[in-house]
Amino acid sequence: MSFLKVIEKYEKFNFEDYFNRVTDEDIKRSIYKNKLNEEDFLNIISPKGEKYLEEMAQKAHEISNRYFGKTVLLYTPLYIANMCVNRCAYCSYNHDNNILRAKLTMEEIEKEAKAIAKEGFKHIILLTGESSKDTPIEYLVDAIKVLKDYFPSITLEVQPLSEEDYKKAIEAGADGLTVYQEVYDREIYKKVHLGGPKRNYNFRLDAPERGAKAGMRNISVSALLGLNDFRREVFLTALHGKYIKDNYPGVDVAFSAPRIRPHAGTFHDIYPVSDKNLVQCILALRLFHNNSVINISTRESASFREKLIPLGVNKMSAGVLTEVGGHCKDTKGKGESQFLISDQSSTEDVKKMIKRLGYQPILKDWERI
Ligand code: SF4
After folding, report:
1. Is residue 68 within 8 Å of 82, Cβ to Cβ?
2. Nearest CA to ligand 1 atom 7
3. Which of 80, 93, 135, 337 to mutate to test the pocket of ligand 1 (most atoms within 8 A of CB)?
């Protein structure tokens, strides 16, 4: 079994037709159900569902408080390399883009770790471009071994690996995995992934499951909003998470809703996703996945991130730099950024904003044994 079976089920599904048939009664009934099914998700994410954002927001707020209290977990990304063999039309790290490439040494990674740890972070996401040649599992394992002395929780966001390699990363000290499918629609997937191993849709689609089989504690799935109609993409993201939860009950599944940001390159074939659309995505995810973490990154502005906290977001990045080696002066400027961030608030400013809303910023919710 693979999530592929679920994708196949929806390949011929007429979303337009379904959305046209959704009634106000369907939406209201779905919002107030205790346990939403796939049809309910489609009802609340439908264009007509936009009229009911207030009702959805109230329920999402209650659910979040019930499961997580008034807390927001903070983390920061650490870019250790930006070599990439793929040619994704929407990303600055695209192999064809003439940017400054770099890969940190273990010594440099340790310097970055010290600089980040000084800010109080305990949760990091370790990022590279996607290149098994430049950043093979051996390099990743060495990096994790350096970082585990500083951070109790290390999530990998690297090229999709085999189950065996995920096991090696876990043994070294990683506990989380982020693999975004980017776009679940196969035709668009082919169109925007112009070259490199990432063109293998199925291998990427099954990566979260390989991570779960290997023993990853938390797994984050998502689509990159803007590559296709967001309603279909967020629906399939929700189902991908459900598939992992149903088959691997020990895994914490998390969701994001990243929108495309300005980047190097010439890809502009974007499906617009407004702030209102993004709010609808987050509310629908919270109503469908009551006990899952929902993360919002600094792709979004500070003022918008603030508004999303009471709506169900309970994890966010802070102190973000998307360039390789950007945290300490010895390595600053070594490699270029993946994309331009929108929220440039300092970690302290993010903490203050969370407290001002009556929430508690959390820096650690996990201890490695
Ligand atoms: S999105 Fe990932 S795989 Fe694609 S070019 Fe950027 S870094 Fe490489």
Report:
1. no
2. 129
3. 93
| DSSP code, position 220 | E
Q: What domains are there in the chain, each with its CATH number?
A: 4-362 (3.20.20.70)
- Ligand 1 atom with the shortest distance to the CA of 84: 8
What SS3 class is residue 360?
A: strand
228 DSSP assignment: S
The dihedral through the CA atoms of 22, 233, 342, 78 has a sign that is positive
Determine contact, residues 158/126, Cβ cutoff 8 Å: yes
CA of 188 to the centre of ligand 1 (A): 16
Judge if the beta carbon of residue 204 lies within 6 A of ligand 1.
no
DSSP-based three-state secondary structure for 279: helix
Rounded Cα gap, residues 266 and 259, in angstroms:
17
Q: State yes or no: pLDDT of 6 exceeds 90.
A: yes
Q: Residues 6 or more apart from 213 whose CB is under 8 A from it?
A: 163, 166, 248
pLDDT in tens, 186-212: 999 999 999 999 999 999 999 999 999
* Distance, CA of 105 to CA of 59 (rounded, Å): 48
Query: How far is the C-alpha of 135 from the C-alpha of 203, rounded, in Å?
Result: 18
Atom of ligand 1 nearest to the CA of 91: 6
What is the three-class DSSP state of 17? helix
Ligand 1 centroid–CA 88 distance in Å is 6
Pocket probe for ligand 1: among 82, 84, 135, 189, the residue whose CB has the most ligand atoms within 8 Å is 84
Asked if residues 273 and 259 have their Cβ atoms less than 8 Å apart, the reply is yes
In this predicted structure, what is the pLDDT of residue 262?
65
Query: pLDDT tens for residues 249-271?
Result: 999 999 999 998 766 566 678 89
Residues 326/77, Cβ–Cβ less than 8 Å? no
Cα Rg, the chain, nearest whole Å: 20
> Ligand 1 atom 5: the closest Cα is on which residue?
94
Kindly state if the Cβ of 45 falls inside 6 Å of ligand 1: no
Using the 8-state DSSP alphabet, how is residue 81 labeled?
Answer: B
Cα(101)–Cα(140) distance, integer angstroms: 17
